[in-house]
Amino acid sequence: xxxxxxxxxxxxxxxxxxxxxxxxxxxxxxxxxxxxxxxxxxxxxxxxxxxxxxxxxxxxxxxxxxxxxxxxxxxxxxxxxxxxxxxxxxxxxxxxxxxxxxxxxxxxxxxxxxxxxxxxxxxxxxxxxxxxxxxxxxxxxxxxxxxxxxxxxxxxxxx
Length: 159
Fold this sequence. Notes:
Elements: H1 2-34, H2 48-55, E1 58-62, E2 66-69, E3 77-82, E4 89-93, E5 99-112, E6 117-123, E7 133-135, E8 140-142, E9 152-158
Antiparallel strand pairs: 1-5, 2-4, 3-4, 3-5, 5-8, 5-9, 6-7, 6-9
């Protein structure tokens, strides 16, 4: 009888330990479900598909400091003119520096309101980008066809 009592006690202890472990695992799983998932920033431009559909401007990625905006916005505005667009394409520089990777085909002029910027282009028929073009504040800088070069696609703006 003593062996049976010992066995029953051991079985009860094992069952209790299993119940505690299961409860702990369930609690851990519930706690994991309450935690936000990992966030990996890939720097892709928000609403890029919508902007492409509405404005024919392909925005790829950036640091969030150069934003696509309506040209009437006040502040530090960067403007691009292209033969493929009616009117100017505008971006606002927020802060002292920034970068934006984009594609604007047949770009001909870049303008920066208050800060110098660099514009990187690739010329038609080429695979490698040209050296960045320096854009002085308050000046329209010709690129591509406006600079007596082949048609240019604007690839990047840096401030």
